[in-house]
Write a structure and sequence with these properties.
The complex is a heterodimer of chains A (275) and B (339). Chain A has a domain of 189 residues: Rossmann fold (3-Layer(aba) Sandwich), CATH 3.40.50. Helices cover 32% and strands 27% of the residues of chain A. Chain A has 8 helices and 12 strands. In chain A, the strands form 3 sheets. Chain A has a 6-stranded mixed beta sheet, sandwiched between helices. Chain B is mainly beta and 339 residues long. The longest helix of chain B is centred in the C-terminal third of the chain and has 15 residues. Chain B is globular, with a radius of gyration of 20 Å. In chain B, 53% of the residues are buried. Classes of the chains: A alpha/beta (275), B mainly beta (339). At the A-B interface, helix 2, strand 7, helix 3 and strand 8 of A face strand 18, strand 20, helix 2 and helix 3 of B.
């Protein structure tokens, strides 16, 4: 069956083993939600699927419609139909949203002519209106100076423009107020066309009020420990995760080290005295 | 946007408001109203005197050309100057004089299709209350050596905004020296340099605050690709008593390629307490997260890099608004580092 298949996936970052045998299927046309406490490897899974250079896969396989995803570079994965709406997308000053999105759309049209400019502008304007974003979005620099909510909506806008086969939404609900969450939810739901496979990564049940899921899985210790339907999500919403930990005999569910935040340094030259 | 483009060189196509010079000789001139061109023989005494302290006999210029903006001139269409060089021994000097309260915009292009030695000097005199927006792009051939000096005296309430873009294949040494001579004089100098192959480029910018309540900004943007070497030296000097002055410096650089080198030395010399000053340098390789983000949407690594670099050089877009030049600039960027 068409879709994304993940088998016994192990991955590490800077010597830390994070994913420890993930098995997961996202079928075309279906929505799969992954829930779980902080630090259990959910976002790592999303990054590994997309091919983030920070992570190294040590075991297992990922296929998309039977094709080996791990053999592809990040851009090849995207062109094959994978999309990741990131939790904290990069800011790229100087590059306008419209230049970027058009370049991404053109990149998918291998061997074909670039998308006609007029059609592109029309589609982009429609997407900006649907996501209720600022009208000057096309001319603003990519995520530069965007609020948290604007960045999230911009991710969904790109998803809408790029028509992926499989979309992974990594905590798309964090940092969104109720109104913005509804806009995002409505837009994602509108994109469900019977072919789109969706993987929703979230801490909270509230996202699933706006985007319904066919399956719900719980991730702990870098693997999927439980899978069910929306009733599993409802039980987590009222009782939390402790009952699952108890049931499975898990004491520490975390795999991502606390000091995970990376620090970026700017060079500051030494001041010198006047000759 | 990142389509392949064949080699393009910079050239003004439209002849309106254009002065063409070859080795200092005027080939064609169409000056906007209120601007006059003089040579050493017919320049008004007062104008020549204003530049007296800029230069000394031993500098030995082949020729000085004066551009004078009359007092009170309102900002009109820009004057465009195209400089070509065929004689290696030619040492050109252009002196730009803005009389009181004059406003002007000047864009210059320096091109050269022979391997040669370039030695150009631009002197600026901004009288009280005047304002000049000056931008220049140069693109010389490989193995040329280009030495460019720009010196400016900015008087009370006058504003100078200077943009330079170096996109050619030459080795270059640029020296920009600004003297803020009167109260509330302001100067901004922005340099964009793209170096590749085995090019060596040094850009030095000095801002000297010689009056109180003066304001300066130095911005250096650079990309060093292949085995090139690029150095930015920014120095700001605020002398004692120049209270309420404000000085800023920004140095931004991207290094492409293992063998490229980019240095930045931001220096502040301050001898007064009651001032504001900030400086900094951010030099590094292309940010891995930016590259990953763009690639995660399907752009190849090369296209993603090109888009990030084009974005980084966005200040160039402000430097040139004319579509023919803008297209040529994008073409040059792709040609130089997009291989």
């Amino acid at each position: 069956m068409a879709g994304l298949r993940i088998e016994n996936l192990h991955a590490e970052a800077e010597g830390h083993r994070i994913l420890r045998g993930v098995d997961l299927c996202i079928d075309a046309g279906k929505t799969h939600a992954i829930m779980g406490p902080n630090g259990t490897g959910k976002s790592t899974l999303a990054s590994v699927i997309m091919g983030h250079p920070r992570y190294k896969v040590t075991e297992g396989k990922i296929t998309l419609d039977g094709e080996d995803v791990l053999a592809m570079t990040t851009d090849e994965r995207a062109r094959a139909g994978l999309f990741l709406a990131m939790q904290s997308p990069a800011e790229v000053p100087g590059v306008t949203n419209s230049d970027f999105i058009k370049a991404a759309m053109d990149a998918r049209r291998e061997g074909e002519k670039n998308i006609p400019l007029f059609r592109f502008i029309k589609q982009l304007d429609e997407a900006v209106a649907a996501l209720k974003m600022r009208e000057d979005l096309p001319h603003r620099y990519l995520n530069d100076g965007f609020s948290g909510g604007e960045k999230k909506r911009n991710e969904i806008l790109q998803m809408r423009m790029l028509h992926p086969k499989i979309a992974i939404l990594d905590e798309i609900d964090s940092g969104l107020d109720v109104d913005a969450l509804k806009i995002v939810g409505d837009n994602v739901t509108a994109m469900k066309d019977g072919k789109l496979g969706l993987l929703l990564i979230t801490h909270y049940q509230r996202l699933l009020d706006y985007i319904s899921a066919d399956k719900v899985s719980v991730m702990m210790q870098g693997r999927i420990v439980k899978t069910g339907d929306e009733s599993l999500m409802k039980r987590i919403d009222t009782e939390g995760y402790d009952w699952i930990k108890e049931e499975l005999g898990i004491e520490d569910e975390r795999v991502v080290p606390d000091d995970d935040e990376r620090v970026f340094l700017e060079k500051c030259a030494t001041k010198e005295a006047l000759e | 946007m990142i389509a392949e483009q064949s080699a393009v060189r910079l050239r003004f196509v439209d002849k309106t408001g254009l002065v063409s010079l070859r080795d200092g000789r005027v080939l064609a001139k169409d000056l906007p109203r209120g601007l006059t061109l003089y040579d050493e023989k017919n320049v008004p005494e007062a104008v020549r005197d204003s530049f007296r302290s800029f230069t000394s006999e031993e500098e030995g210029f082949s020729d000085t050309l004066y551009v004078v903006a009359e007092a009170g001139l309102q900002k009109g269409p820009p004057l465009r100057i195209m400089l070509e060089r065929t004689r290696e021994t030619f040492r050109g000097r252009i002196a730009i004089y803005l009389a009181k309260e004059a406003q002007a915009e000047i864009r210059a292009l320096a091109i050269d299709e022979a391997k040669t030695l370039v030695d150009d000097t631009w002197d600026f005199f901004l009288a009280e209350g005047s304002s000049l927006v000056f931008s220049t792009l140069s693109a010389y051939e490989e193995e040329s050596m280009a030495r460019t000096r720009r010196r400016a005296h900015v008087h009370e309430n006058a504003t100078l905004s200077l943009d330079t873009g170096a996109l050619g294949d030459e080795n270059a040494h640029q020296e920009n020296r600004f003297f803020l001579k009167g109260r509330k004089a302001r100067a901004r100098s922005r340099s964009v340099v793209l170096s590749a192959k085995r090019q060596e480029t040094v850009v030095k910018t000095l801002m000297a605050h010689e009056a109180p309540a003066t304001e300066s900004l130095i911005e250096h943007y650079g990309v060093a690709a292949d085995e090139s070497f690029l150095a930015f030296e920014a120095a700001t000097r605020i002398e004692k008593g120049m209270k309420k002055s404000s000085a800023r410096q920004k140095n931004h650089g991207v290094i492409l390629g293992e063998k490229a080198r980019l240095d930045a030395n931001p220096l502040l010399y301050i001898d007064e307490y009651d001032v504001e000053a900030a400086h900094g340098a951010a030099i590094g390789r292309i940010d891995e997260e930016e590259l990953y983000y763009l690639m995660s949407r399907g752009l190849t690594e090369r296209d993603a890099q090109m888009l990030i670099i084009q974005g980084f050089l966005a200040p160039l877009d402000k430097l040139v608004e004319e579509t023919d030049i803008e297209r040529a600039v994008r073409g040059l960027v792709t040609e130089k580092i997009g291989r």
